[in-house]
């Protein structure tokens, strides 16, 4: 009976994971943090920002609901290999984390507010993952493209650490390159509302964020 119960619990945990093959390898960015950030050019007046905070299905849905955000792309960033894939990044050996590229109108929402969304939509003290997703590919990374952005992030991270009286897990790293994920990952939450992970992890995380920041939401959310 105990063995059967254990198998049932294990299966449930695997089901409610962004990827059941997730690894628990740790990863550090000591070398990366010394590199110069790459600044990306605006596209049709839209700035771009990059964040990693657990499963990109969840993070994409969160930022898509924010006013001033025009598009969010799921992908990979923060690693050391070229052309990462979902399968390779989820081994934990490429160094990449699941990340999002956020296209936003700076006349409607600021980079600072996007950082507030970032910290306010996750468990900021969870190391090497978010919720049921564990491993270096789910670690929290927040990317800066210039010194002004870095200072904004550092200030907000410090204030949050003082408020919670706890260390904040997110690593602050210079942006280098974003790799777009496979097509089936894009708008995953919208296209797969009945997926068990989406119903039990993504949507509750989205609703929790929306309740916390109603003033930042688009009118149709």
TrEMBL record:
<dbReference type="GO" id="GO:0033744">
    <property type="term" value="F:L-methionine:thioredoxin-disulfide S-oxidoreductase activity"/>
</dbReference>
<protein>
    <recommendedName>
        <fullName>Peptide methionine sulfoxide reductase MsrA</fullName>
        <ecNumber>1.8.4.11</ecNumber>
    </recommendedName>
</protein>
<keyword id="KW-0732">Signal</keyword>
<dbReference type="InterPro" id="IPR036509">
    <property type="entry name" value="Met_Sox_Rdtase_MsrA_sf"/>
</dbReference>
<dbReference type="Pfam" id="PF01625">
    <property type="entry name" value="PMSR"/>
</dbReference>
<comment type="function">
    <text>Has an important function as a repair enzyme for proteins that have been inactivated by oxidation. Catalyzes the reversible oxidation-reduction of methionine sulfoxide in proteins to methionine.</text>
</comment>
<feature type="active site">
    <location>
        <position position="55"/>
    </location>
</feature>
<keyword id="KW-0560">Oxidoreductase</keyword>
<feature type="domain" description="Peptide methionine sulphoxide reductase MsrA">
    <location>
        <begin position="49"/>
        <end position="197"/>
    </location>
</feature>
<comment type="similarity">
    <text>Belongs to the MsrA Met sulfoxide reductase family.</text>
</comment>
<dbReference type="InterPro" id="IPR002569">
    <property type="entry name" value="Met_Sox_Rdtase_MsrA_dom"/>
</dbReference>
<feature type="signal peptide">
    <location>
        <begin position="1"/>
        <end position="22"/>
    </location>
</feature>
<dbReference type="GO" id="GO:0008113">
    <property type="term" value="F:peptide-methionine (S)-S-oxide reductase activity"/>
</dbReference>
